[in-house]
Amino acid sequence: MYELTKSIPYLLNRAGVRMGALFSRRIEQFNLTLPMYRVLASLREQPGQKLSDLAETTVVELSTMSRMIGTLVTNGLVTRERLPNNERTVSINLTKEGIRIADLLIKEAMHYEEVAVRNLATADIEKLRFLLNEIHDLLDVLESEQESLLQ
Amino acid sequence: MYELTKSIPYLLNRAGVRMGALFSRRIEQFNLTLPMYRVLASLREQPGQKLSDLAETTVVELSTMSRMIGTLVTNGLVTRERLPNNERTVSINLTKEGIRIADLLIKEAMHYEEVAVRNLATADIEKLRFLLNEIHDLLDVLESEQESLLQ
Question: Mean pLDDT across the stretch B37-54?
Fold first, then answer.
């Protein structure tokens, strides 16, 4: 008999969605969503990114990312500049206030991570990171299957 | 420097949400959502469950579960009966059509799982199951923290 609550997709989605929901609730007071936080954290690590890079990292559609950056510009957290040698590409950076908020929320995210993996051995955490990347990559196979079913 | 894309919350949410989104899209043609599928799969394993059991397994609020069961009753997939010795509790079961759909989708879910863990050793899959349960349980700590912040 199939046991739903022991299946990897169920366990993965349950833990992942709950983790995201908890952190989303934590950053609500900053008027930020989870993808917005990811934009700030990603720009803190690597300034001057393009829309397409940020869309990939934060796992949102390019059109959604474009609107999201508009909101973050309005809120004074990021700037958007055309590159001098490429009219079609914009470079996105944190403002001073954006850096301040990013640092504050990264500190909070590190606390969430610390609690979530508190009971795990260091080797297990490394293993988990590897396994989550492996599974994410294999989901490409399922996505291709779906696309060929729709054709 | 903090690396967002190596953090466990990021990797966990990214893989979990993508897994859920892919399977949700797969079952759209049956007019079912992911929590509805979970209800069917859970009743296939354990018939005669209460609303509260199903709400816990499928990770939705009790009020949402009550509405969802209403929809599944209307669609002819489950039945809802009051227990003779307890007027306030209902027992939920699959109809014959509900069993047919559950079996079909469980087969599909098993395929998704098989693909997702295709590259992993059996011991790693066991390990992952353990780690995902551990993390999910530790998220209770973060939830309690949030509740005390709100008080």
Answer: 96
CATH number of A4-116: 1.10.10.10
Q: What ipTM was assigned to the predicted interfaces of this complex?
A: 0.92
Note whether B34 and B27 are within 8 A (CB). Answer: yes
Coil, strand, or helix at residue B81?
A: strand
Out of 3.30.565.10, 1.10.10.10, 3.40.50.10540, 3.30.43.10, the CATH code matching B7-116 is 1.10.10.10
Q: Alpha-carbon distance A48 to A55, whole Å?
A: 14
Best probe of the A interface among B2, B57, B106, by most A CBs < 10 A, is: B2
CA–CA dist B150, B143 (Å, integer) = 11
Task: Locate the chain A residue with the closest alpha carbon to B22.
Answer: A143
* Local confidence band at A86 (pLDDT 50, 70, 90 cut-offs): confident
Q: Which residues of B touch A3 (CB under 8 A)?
A: 45
* Phi and psi angles of residue A92, each rounded to the nearest 5 degrees, phi first: -110, 135
Task: Judge: A14–B59 Cβ closer than 8 Å, yes or no.
Answer: yes
Distance CA(A6)–CA(A74), nearest Å, equals: 45
Find chain A residues with C-beta within 8 A of B106's C-beta: 2
